[in-house]
Amino acid sequence: MKAFTYERAKSAQDAAVLASRTPGAKFIAGGTNLLDLMKLQIETPQHLIDVNGTGLDKIEPTPDGGLRIGAMVRNTDLAADARVRKDYGVLSRALLAGASGQLRNKATTAGNLLQRTRCPYFYDTTQACNKRAPGSGCAAIGGFSKGLAIVGGSTSCIATHPSDMAVAMRVLDATVETVTWSGSTRSIPIADFHRLPGTTPQTDTTLAAGEVITAVTLPKPIGGTHIYRKVRDRASYAFALVSVAAVIEAGRGRLAIGGVAHKPWRVESAEARLPEGAKATAAALLAGAKPTTDNAYKVALVERTIASVIEESRA
């Protein structure tokens, strides 16, 4: 780990102001991903801005019947919140499927959205990776790609987004709230928050430099049966090979898929195929998929996981 300087922000806007004074500074909250990246010298910030004292650790009702989740709410607290468990069960289940208890105690809502890919070539600094070192190439393309993307990739990157929480928030149509150093705010639909790689895979989100996440807002409850099904190499602790976040009612509903793309993957038009069953729905969701020999199994796994979710919704 390389030497760095450190300071604490008193508010979200204060954090943005501090970042504007030090280009290349990084925000740190739980540090469950950033510190690993710093130890491997994949991230080498010269300055860290601690956002733990910004007071963004509350879960509050919104005037229209939804919930506003502060950026610093810990994953453990969010999963256990009675309102989340009652009305947004898919989110609680996704959080509990992610990481270990110790990590959930430290990980935050904003940090979870911002965690970086677990592509093995991203973490191996001896390998080419356009996400880690833009313009260096992509060793994953033509390399070992068992866990990597089958849809939405590009000739520059086939990495996947690792978050379970983000997949559930995508199916719930969450909105990400931000603030900048000038005090201006934005509300970004989560559908637009994470990017596909294109020719700039080093940029994971649509956040501007120094823009700070303040909260994630969930719309009012939509009812239905909430299910999160995660398929992974081992049950104890692993990232998803494929995951399905679903809210289903009377055979109709919403689906978002994890582990298959550079962002949580949802195709709203495919959801109209749910009454036709898993095969038709998966075919519509994965239209245009370009799997490799290593990860072609994901196409069948998505269909079978959707079938399992549909069956569970009938129970």
What descriptors fit this protein?
315 residues, alpha+beta, five-stranded antiparallel β-sheet, 12 helices, 11 strands, 29% helix, 18% strand, globular
Description:
By secondary structure, the protein is α+β, with helices and mostly antiparallel strands. The chain is built from 12 helices and 11 strands. The strands form 3 sheets. The protein has a 5-stranded antiparallel beta sheet. Strands 1-3-2 form a 3-stranded parallel beta sheet, with helices on one face. A hairpin with a 5-residue loop joins β4 and β5. α5 runs antiparallel to α9 and α11 (278-285) crosses α12 (297-314).
Morphology call = globular
Rounded mean pLDDT is 96
Strand tally, please?
11
Question: What is the tally of helical segments?
Answer: 12
Gap between N and C termini:
51 Å
The helix fraction, in percent, is 25-40%
Q: State the major sheet.
A: 5 strands, antiparallel
**Strand percentage:** 15-25%
- Largest beta sheet: what is the strand line-up? 4-5-8-6-7
State the low-pLDDT regions, or none: none
The SS-based structural class is: alpha+beta
Please tell me how large the radius of gyration is.
19 Å
SSE order in H/E notation? Answer: EHEHEEEHHHHHHHEEHEEEEHH
